[in-house]
Design brief:
- The protein is built from 7 helices and 8 strands.
- The protein has helices at about 5-10, 15-60, 70-85, 105-110, 180-185, 225-240, 240-250; strands spanning about 85-90, 95, 120-125, 130-140, 145-155, 160-165, 205, 215-220.
- Helix 2 (about 15-60) packs across helix 3.
């Protein structure tokens, strides 16, 4: 007599029957979830890559139309391949690092390493007018969780061409405003080096920045902690590229 026959003959009101039945259901559900997770993983990875490419394109102002595209993935892939001419990695000494895929770099993991061991990804873009831009990925911390984004620079390695920021859980109407076009467009035309070529990044000023200041933008009203977190993110991330930028200016 098999185990299944014994189980069928078991008193359904017994504790043992209840335990075995519940255990069997847990195992079955776990197996189904594991199968579902495995089958969905390629689609989830594709979505993640597409969203990353959208953010990179946004920093160039080249993501318009993505929401209405018949095939979002193809639209983004075509635009990314059209504008992103090169992806490469540099180290803290400003030297190119061979054999490392810039797109696959996990900024969170890199930021946990000593500076001299970090990889710094760069995306080089060529726009329709043949102007060259350099896109730098950013990652930091806001009030409630991680914030991230991309800043594109002109080929002077100083002037900001565009910026896009996003967040995981900032407060709607307050810190979450970092992902609005109104906030992001303030960065266009700002400089990360001063007239003496000293790296100064961009300040996010509570109460409003002086409009003539080439290194400052207005903070978010009521979102002081997120604003300062974003300011720190930009400075910390861009500072790793300082040597590379200066080398390219020579």
């Amino acid at each position: 007599m098999g185990i299944l026959d014994n189980f069928k003959k078991m008193d359904r009101n017994s504790n043992l029957y209840t335990f075995l039945y519940a255990s069997g259901m847990v195992i079955l559900v776990a197996a189904l979830l594991a199968i579902a997770a495995t089958s969905l993983k390629p689609a989830q990875q594709k979505n993640k890559e597409t969203e990353k490419k959208i953010d990179i394109l946004k920093s160039l102002g080249k993501a318009d139309g993505v929401e209405t595209a018949a095939n979002k993935h193809k639209f983004v892939e075509d635009a990314f391949n059209k504008y992103i001419a090169e992806m490469f990695v540099v180290n803290s000494k400003g030297e190119k690092v061979e054999g490392v895929d810039a797109f696959s770099i996990d900024l969170k993991a890199e930021q946990s390493k000593p500076l001299e061991q970090r990889n710094f990804p760069i995306y080089k873009a060529t726009l329709d007018d043949q102007s060259i831009k350099f896109i730098i990925p950013l990652r930091g911390r806001g009030l409630w969780g991680p914030i991230w984004g991309y800043i594109s620079l002109n080929d002077d390695y100083n002037t900001i061409y565009g910026a896009t920021f996003a967040h995981q859980g900032e407060t709607p109407g307050l810190g979450a405003e970092i992902n609005t076009p109104e906030f992001q467009k303030q960065f266009v035309g700002k400089s990360i080096f001063d007239v003496n070529n000293k790296f100064v990044s961009v300040l996010v000023v509570k109460g409003g920045a002086d409009k003539s200041d080439p290194h400052a933008v207005d903070a978010i009203s009521g979102g002081t902690i997120t604003s300062k977190g974003l300011e720190a993110m930009i400075k910390d991330c861009l500072s790793g590229y300082e040597t590379y930028f200066n080398n390219q200016k020579k």
